[in-house]
Design brief:
- By secondary structure, the protein is mostly helical.
- The termini are far apart.
Length: 170
């Protein structure tokens, strides 16, 4: 192996931090002594930098995914609004019968739009709130029941007591 004394340590550090390469493989690839690279990496805390870089990249990827999801939702709402407008125009014009449509077709389309947009009626919201309250009560009751203790006292001096091993009483 041709050992380089003029190694570009900034490039080596950058490659280690921004890739998944190990220090041993990097030392071989860059033709620098492994012990030198390892000690320099430890001294300059390359591993911490690598972890921070990974977190930053992950954060950027999450932000990009959230932005893409938000754009998708905006497009979905725009399309749903256009469809709702067309349905409204159709109902107002009275052309439903001539087009062979029944009121059920329109109400079905409206329900589909509500599902796509995650819209809930007041009754649905009340039902959901009632379920949440029930789950909270059940959780509180379970917590209360888990803290109950059963205490059995045995009075060996009582006439009604049976003979109890002495070890139980200690």
């Amino acid at each position: 192996m041709d050992i380089r004394s003029d190694a570009d340590w900034d490039d080596i550090k950058n490659e280690y931090v921004t890739t998944t390469i190990s220090t041993r493989v990097l030392a071989k690839k860059r033709a620098v002594p492994y012990s030198t690279l390892r000690s320099r990496a430890a001294k300059e805390k390359w591993y911490a930098l690598k972890e921070q870089y990974r977190r930053d990249v992950g954060t950027k990827q999450i932000a990009a995914a959230q932005k893409q999801a938000a754009n998708y939702h905006v497009k979905l709402y725009d399309i749903a609004y256009k469809v709702a407008t067309q349905l409204e125009t159709l109902v107002d014009s009275g052309d439903m019968v001539s087009l062979g449509l029944k009121p059920r077709d329109v109400t079905g389309a409206l329900k589909d739009l509500a599902d796509v947009l995650h819209l809930r009626s007041d009754a649905d919201m009340r039902e959901q709130e009632a379920r949440i309250r029930k789950l909270q009560r059940d959780a509180e009751q379970a917590q209360t029941e888990s803290t109950k203790q059963l205490v059995i006292r045995i009075d060996p001096g009582s006439d009604n007591s049976e003979e109890v091993p002495q070890a139980w009483l200690e």
